[in-house]
């Protein structure tokens, strides 16, 4: 027969995942005097965290009079997987000082996970030093966590050294190192390591493909996805499909994107939020806004990413009215806009010439939503002012904004100077732009054109002479083309030998 404490722990585990159920069991345990019994409180802490009730977990922890290593381990594990991993650091300090407990291998693994999520190499190295000097220095679980930490911090050589020291390497640690190499742009080593793995499951394939997409190597990622699909791995996971769709979006690979859409329909993921968001992004980047709208309307539960992706898609294709109407729907649905939402909205106003609406949106960011405009917001807003001929106002904002103006900002204003034939501002802007990029041929060309429009032929000659002296020429353009399932890069003026 189970002891009261064991029965309480079993009841809490059964309730985990349901906030109402966890609180009900907690109330029952309080009534029976078991809530602060060490095993019960540890399981309750974990259950609260799994039910997205971390504040309740922390409150229970504070009220528990006798905090043992098991309770600390449960809380640190819960915090390491929560949305607030940084909370683990003061908890660890409390454990070491106030309660004078020494971390075991479970605690060390949790802190390694926290270091990885925070990208804190300093904390990770401190942990590693403590681990080497501890009685648990041969623990492969902690070593696996250290491999993941070093990979997330971009220190791949140290990750590889720890990996080599692991005796029995499981699929998780293999996958962590593969993902680390792929995510940090070392795709050749990632593929070599992947090929040498003892077995490839959906988890390892997904990590490699996701890492390549993250590193901007979408073409390689899609080739691997096609290889995986042709193999024996069953692709029945929404996350995997969303990654592949994201790769197709990055390359604007419309044919493959449509095929992946068909796969989501067959597998029943069409209403999935994560897949739906990826499809909306893919269709938008492939210029099929109508299909993006249809997918968006079919998503059962939409989050901020769903709404923002559709707003940005409408904006990028010149559908300002649709983007603004969607924003109104979003607010009515109780979704708070984020930084990216406003980038899309102000961009839409810029390309539609909606100066007053753009001003209103830019001002509302801070006033209504507590969002400080970033450099991208200023870039879009200044583009709006420049396109509409408010050149002096744009120049004044550049002088007072809390960011150093970059090439995109000066370039937009310079193009507007040509459009509105303002030679005075053009010269000032060109000087600033050439300070950033002294050999930018397009700046010289625009400046020369403005001089020519104003009949200043001596100045035109000087600009042309400067270009010749710097050996400047116009950079050729390039583009991707999808041929079957291959992705090829073409430069302007070149042909591709098939």
Automatic annotation (TrEMBL):
Question: Does the record carry Cell cycle as a key word?
Answer: no
> What GO molecular function annotations does the UniProt record carry, in alphabetical order?
RNA binding
Query: Subcellular location, in the record's words?
Result: Mitochondrion
Q: Which PROSITE patterns match?
A: PPR
Keyword list (alphabetical) reads: Mitochondrion, Repeat, Transit peptide
- The residues the entry assigns to the signal sequence are none
Record-level GO BP terms: RNA modification
Q: Does the keyword RNA-binding apply?
A: no
PPR repeat copies, ranges: 170-204, 303-337
Record-linked PANTHER family: DYW DOMAIN-CONTAINING PROTEIN, PENTATRICOPEPTIDE REPEAT-CONTAINING PROTEIN
The molecule here is called Pentatricopeptide repeat-containing protein
Species source reads Zizania palustris (Northern wild rice)
């Amino acid at each position: 027969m189970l002891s009261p404490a064991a029965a309480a722990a079993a009841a809490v585990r059964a309730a985990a995942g349901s906030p109402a159920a966890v609180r009900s069991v907690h109330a029952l345990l309080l009534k029976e005097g078991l809530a602060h019994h060490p095993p019960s409180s540890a399981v309750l802490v974990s259950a609260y965290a799994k039910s997205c009730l971390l504040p309740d977990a922390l409150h229970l922890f504070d009220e528990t009079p006798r905090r043992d290593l098991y309770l600390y381990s449960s809380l640190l594990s819960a915090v390491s997987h929560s949305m607030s991993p940084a909370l683990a650091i003061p908890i660890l300090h409390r454990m070491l000082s106030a309660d004078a407990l020494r971390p075991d291998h479970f605690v060390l693994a949790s802190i390694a996970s926290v270091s990885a999520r925070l990208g804190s190499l300093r904390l990770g190295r401190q942990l590693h030093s403590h681990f080497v000097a501890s009685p648990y220095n041969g623990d492969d679980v902690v070593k696996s966590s250290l491999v993941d930490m070093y990979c997330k911090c971009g220190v791949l050589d140290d990750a590889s050294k720890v990996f080599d020291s692991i005796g029995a390497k499981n699929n998780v640690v293999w996958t962590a190192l593969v993902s680390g190499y792929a995510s940090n742009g070392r795709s050749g080593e990632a593929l070599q390591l992947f090929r040498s793995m003892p077995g490839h499951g959906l988890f390892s394939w997904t990590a490699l493909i996701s890492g390549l997409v993250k590193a901007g190597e979408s073409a390689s990622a899609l080739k691997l996805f096609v290889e995986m699909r042709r193999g024996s791995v069953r692709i029945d996971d929404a996350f995997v499909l969303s990654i592949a769709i994201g790769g197709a979006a990055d390359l604007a690979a419309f044919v493959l994107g449509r095929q992946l859409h068909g796969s989501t329909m067959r597998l029943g993921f069409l209403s999935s939020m994560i897949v739906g968001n990826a499809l909306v992004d893919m269709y938008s980047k492939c210029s099929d806004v109508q299909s993006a709208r249809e997918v968006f309307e079919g998503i059962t539960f939409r989050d901020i990413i769903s709404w923002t992706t559709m707003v940005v898609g409408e904006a990028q294709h010149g559908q300002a009215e649709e983007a603004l109407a969607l924003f109104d729907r979003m607010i009515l649905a109780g979704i708070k806009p984020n930084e990216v939402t406003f980038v899309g909205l102000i961009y839409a106003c810029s390309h539609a010439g909606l100066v007053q609406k753009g001003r209103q949106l830019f001002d509302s960011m801070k006033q209504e939503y507590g969002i400080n405009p970033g450099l991208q917001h200023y870039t879009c807003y200044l583009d709006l002012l420049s396109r509409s001929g408010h050149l002096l106002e744009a120049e004044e904002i550049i002088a007072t904004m809390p960011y150093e103006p970059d090439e995109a900002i000066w370039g937009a204003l310079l193009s507007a100077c040509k459009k509105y034939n303002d030679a005075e501002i053009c010269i000032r802007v060109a000087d600033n732009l050439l300070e950033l990029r002294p050999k930018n041929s397009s700046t010289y060309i625009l400046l020369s054109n403005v001089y020519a429009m104003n009949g200043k032929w001596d100045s035109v000659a000087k600009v042309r002479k400067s270009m010749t002296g710097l050996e400047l020429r116009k950079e050729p353009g390039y583009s991707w083309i999808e041929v079957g399932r291959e992705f090829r890069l073409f430069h302007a003026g070149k042909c591709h030998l098939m």
